[in-house]
Amino acid sequence: MKQIISILTFLATVSILVATATSVSMAASTTAASTDEGPVRLRVQSTVDGDVVTLGDLFTGIGELADQEVGPAPEPGRSATYKADHLSAIARAHNVDWRPASAVSRTVIRRGGETVGEDEIVELLRREFRQQGAVGRIKIRLNRMRNNILRPTTGNNLQIDDLTFESDGGPFSAYIKGDISERETQQEMLRGRVDFVARVPVPNRGIRKGQIISRSDIKLSELSLRKLGSDTIESIDLIVGQAAKRNLRQNQSIRASDLRAPIIIPKGTMVTVSLKTNGLSLSGTGRALEDGSQGEVIRILNLQSKRTVEANVVGPSHVLVALRRQLAVVVNK
Question: Global pTM?
Fold first, then answer.
């Protein structure tokens, strides 16, 4: 009998030990699962690329709940702040075991998006100016923009619309547009100033009236078309060797009306007056009443008759009277 009792006692003890071991094992398993998931914690900040914010963007340790949507994402390139009371309401609505540590608990959600640089925007504007007939080199100064321009989604391009400007440059305005998500199009106003410039020859120092211009007196410079007249000279070759008709200022464009052939008979110079007709050749002395260049017709005072005649400049201090011209003048009188 004692042996039977001892056996029964031994079996009961073994059962208790097995049950205890099983409980400990189950508890260990449960603890390990909780450790893998971890406690629910608030994210300090998070960056999203899509159009919505999910629970996983706000909290960690929430398992399969992470993909549940809680609201729209900020606009691309911008951020939104979720404060403690809002976060508490979201946690209760989705059965998330979380409470704010304090009233200032918060998380910041940022929406991703690549910003388009100013150089790229300026190049888009330059192409649009070209398409609308702008000439010369295009220099653009863009005013500061209120918002960053974000790069459009794949397969879409930025475009310039409603570009307005004057043909000779000055202030301009336009819109830049692009689809930055499947549901959102960004449009921003662009303002600035545009100059259409050309490389033209200008004096590299002041040139006095009557001075014969050499190559060393001239350089090429970029000037706005607004500062250029219709008769502005664009080739250095048309300037070198000419004389300044008036004083020319440094770095100012040169017009055709600013130049003349070099003066070889200055006003007041004593000249030889020749007349040739029907084999007859006469000569005398006169005084130039105005400056004269090679080939020009100028007025000459005949010192003997005290009459004024017109003569062609044929060389330094030498003029030739056109007899037929003088006879016509007499007849007309």
Answer: 0.50
